[in-house]
Amino acid sequence: MWGSNARAAHPIFFHHLLKGVDAGARMWTVDPRRTTSARFADMWLGLNVGTDIALANGVGREIIHAGLVNTEFVENATEGYEGFAAHVEPWTLGRTAGVTGVPAEAIRDLAHGYASASTAQLIWTLGITEHHTAVDNVLALCNLALLTGHVGRWGSGLVPLRGQNNVQGGGDMGALPNKLPGFQDVADDDARTRLEGVWQATIPAEPGWHLTQMFEAMESDDLKAVWVIGENPADSEADANHAREMLGHLQHLVVQDVFMTRTAEMADVVLPAALGWVESDGTVTSSERRVQRTRAAVTPPGEARQEIDVIAEMAERMGAKWGRPTAEELWDELRSVSPMHGGMSWQRLEAEGGIQWPCPDEDHPGTPFLHGRLWKRPIDGRRAPFSCVDDHPPVDQLTDEFPLRLTTGRVLDSYNTGVQSGKFNSPIRSGDALELSTDDARSLGLVRGDRALVSSRRGSIEMTVAVDPDLPVGLAFTTFHFPEIADVNQLTSDAWDTSSGTSEFKAAAIRVEKLEVAPNA
Prior knowledge:
Strand content: 15-25%
Structural class: alpha/beta
Shape: globular
CATH topology of the largest domain: Rossmann fold
């Protein structure tokens, strides 16, 4: 588990993972904090924030030097191995330990254990992707799977755990600036022409803006109106003060949501929506690509309506003649434009309870795991490439003025910006405090329950202090679940990955100062 505290963020998945551990599987956790997940692991590798590529390169070099490369797989299914081997050669165990802070013996143990296992999985979440090197971080992990052949076969693979229900489904439908439904590229002339024939509309060949670029376009006044569906960017964006300023700069803001979020409070128009999991008909797709049906169990309250009904009426008022398509009709439309969904009829989804894509025709059973083609001889399709990626430290550098590294994450009973989880009491509620190491708290003259002013290069907020004896010196932690209590995203770094557009939420530089409370205050 690399950059994932699944015990808190994906507890049901973690329960299944522990079944494997109980059955004899070994588990390593790679995380700057000794998380609740790490406490179940055979070994915790507590790396310095933002040194994931350095660690992966060091693990790769050790696998090569120990003679643990799956030579048959590398020779027949990959390309670029010689260049990759030369690229990671400088990353000796000593150098890797010096950069990452992980002991050399722990790096060796991970490399040998992962490479020697008959089956192994690399699991990651936002601890890998919320950095300015997000895509390179993922590619560094992919290199390890290619070195060892732990991909494309039962029990071995690369497992990115999605942060929310149906994130995978959103991507499948084409909710990405450079993709059409079914992950077809907008630059693919054949795919674009085929979809234009179905939709009777022209599709631009150039990618659109991702979220970070949208905020830049708001600032330059190139983006004047925004329709936000099921998102709360006023609280969830890095450098939240700037994000709110840009949203306020818009000529027109429409928010379609279940709750009156901070973003909705800023809107010119609010469209009340139905809850996707209990008041709507449709589908969701899990992290394992399994498409499943959702069914409206209750009627939405008040003026709330199902999303597809709201969007269809909006289209009608704009002059389109869509009618009122049902969820099944929209699904059939998707099947007509997305080859990987072609075999998933509505009836099959109902009867089978879920099907994993790709499923190109109705005789196809679905695909339990991807990349099995890499094990065909000769290989079916193109070879999987190694990637030569470099270690780059966080953009928000530590200095005498900002000497502590702040990283953020989730806790078990809360969710995202707290919109869905903050309205009820919980006996295990936590996460609204700034957690410091014992030594850092002592040097700052702070104890549990004290109030402190927490500052970054973007802003300052007041927080309550907690002390975590397992935190490394120099590292602070908090969640983003309670913006009304601790508006943490006023502090987070807005540096972003140029490939994915993801901001570097995991690596802000901060200063912590004790606030004196007046007597009898």
